[in-house]
Amino acid sequence: MSKSALIRDALEAYLQADRAERAESALSQVADLVGILSGPEDLSVHKDSLRCCS
Questions:
Q1: Are 46 and 40 spatial neighbours (Cβ–Cβ below 8 Å)?
Q2: What is the value of pTM for the model shown?
Q3: Which of 20, 38, 49, 52 is the most buried (most CB within 10 A)?
Q4: Distance between CA 39 and CA 49 in Å, rounded?
Q5: CA-CA distance, 25 to 12, in Å (whole number)?
Q6: Could you give the C-alpha distances from 42 to 11, 45, 49, in angstroms and in order?
């Protein structure tokens, strides 16, 4: 195996491991935004609470 192939494989393995550690859920990415607005808690169930421009 050439030196460049060895380095390439090692770098690829390192980056894949790092990417797996950094994987976050959608909720964790927007956690600072959750709950900052006032209003009904669950508009998907209480659709009569929606005030839309329909």
A1: yes
A2: 0.37
A3: 49
A4: 9
A5: 23
A6: 46, 6, 9
In the numeric block, which tokens belong to residue 6? 């060895």
DSSP states of 1-54 as a string? --HHHHHHHHHHHHHHHHHHHH---HHHHSGGGTT-S-S-S-TTT-GGG-----
- In single-letter form, the type of residue at position 46 comes to H
5-53 tens-digit pLDDT: 999 999 998 888 767 667 777 888 888 888 888 776 776 776 666 666 5
d(C-alpha 7, C-alpha 14), whole Å: 10
